[in-house]
């Protein structure tokens, strides 16, 4: 029973962490793109003035950053939950 209660209690924390991870990843991507390209705005797939290379490079960089940030936040949340509850969340 305690396991189910812990899962329910951790759900809102995970939602907040997910939102924070998205915001952090978005801000980080903007900075990385600015450094990599010198352009303040990353290309959008629907922007006809951008090349295929720009659009695909931006998508690849953004995907990699989001994946790393998501993994780091998920791992950090699980580590924090273990500190609080005494066991790894499942």
UniProtKB/TrEMBL annotation:
Name the domain of life this protein comes from.
Answer: Bacteria
Q: Which InterPro entries match?
A: DUF4235
List the keywords (alphabetical).
Answer: Membrane, Transmembrane, Transmembrane helix
The keyword Membrane appears for this protein: yes
Cite a single Pfam family from the UniProt record: DUF4235
- The record lists the membrane-crossing segments as 12-32, 52-73
Full protein name:
DUF4235 domain-containing protein
Species this chain originates from = Actinoplanes awajinensis subsp. mycoplanecinus
- Organism classification: Bacteria, Bacillati, Actinomycetota, Actinomycetes, Micromonosporales
């Amino acid at each position: 029973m305690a396991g189910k209660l812990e899962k329910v209690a951790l759900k809102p924390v995970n939602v907040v962490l997910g939102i924070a991870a998205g915001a952090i990843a978005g801000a980080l991507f903007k900075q990385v793109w600015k450094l990599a390209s010198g352009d303040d705005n990353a290309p959008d797939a629907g922007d006809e003035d951008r090349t295929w290379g720009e659009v695909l490079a931006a998508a690849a960089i953004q995907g990699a950053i989001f994946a790393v940030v998501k993994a780091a936040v998920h791992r950090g949340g699980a580590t924090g939950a273990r500190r609080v509850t005494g066991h790894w969340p499942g």
